[in-house]
Amino acid sequence: xxxxxxxxxxxxxxxxxxxxxxxxxxxxxxxxxxxxxxxxxxxxxxxxxxxxxxxxxxxxxxxxxxxxxxxxxxxxxxxxxxxxxxxxxxxxxxxxxxxxxxxxxxxxxxxxxxxxxxxxxxxxxxxxxxxxxxxxxxxxxxxxxxxxxxxxxxxxxxxxxxxxxxxxxxxxxxxxxxxxxxxxxxxxxxxxxxxxxxxxxxxxxxxxxxxxxxxxxxxxxxxxxxxxxxxxxxxxxxxxxxxxxxxxxxxxxxxxxxxxx
Length: 261
Prior knowledge:
Layout: E1 7-16, E2 19-29, E3 34-38, H1 45-53, E4 60-65, E5 68-69, H2 75-80, E6 83-85, H3 98-104, H4 114-119, H5 122-141, H6 157-169, E7 175-179, H7 187-200, E8 206-210, H8 214-220, E9 223-228, E10 231-236, H9 238-242, H10 245-252, H11 254-260
Parallel strand pairs: 3-8, 3-9, 6-7, 7-8
Antiparallel strand pairs: 1-2, 1-4, 4-5, 9-10
Helix pairs in contact: 3-6, 10-11
């Protein structure tokens, strides 16, 4: 018996007035695998991510996460069901510390209520200690433990990108949507981040990677989905996509493709 993928997307579509932004796009993300979603600017990638994460409602099609249909649910409900995203432009709190920013990600998984918070019950204190330990462990994995008390606004951009991933992981997702995680990173920082993302697969996490850095995509992805003008034009392994004529022409440009990939 074939195990169902963690995320199944079937004929996903979204229309804005007379514009068909996404047209019957289908793909799957298995648990413990990295699937990359690529395409040129304006191809529909951001719209797809917004549909998956609940920012937008599909005009048609299905989104099924771990057997439950999530298309049309609001973003907070999608996140609670286990699909958590990072953002291309980052949404960190610059005047809070690194540790405080990571702990903000645990807001949706806290098990205490208003009375616990009001009375500072032992239950609340135990969970706070547990969450701080989890946050520090994530920061240590990303090489940021030494910055835990530092204000985020004074950090280098590369560290802020890592921090956003740590905050997303505090929500204990089963599926992680990474929107341009390598944007603004130098090659050494991108390699380091790539090793961390690869390690997430061993936790059974499914990852949908939206990324312009083709070196990162080719190193990390198990499969690649290519969209252009809202339509899926190719899907396959990195080697298959690298050799696909439609991809070379529509996304990379035939002459530059071999050098870029």
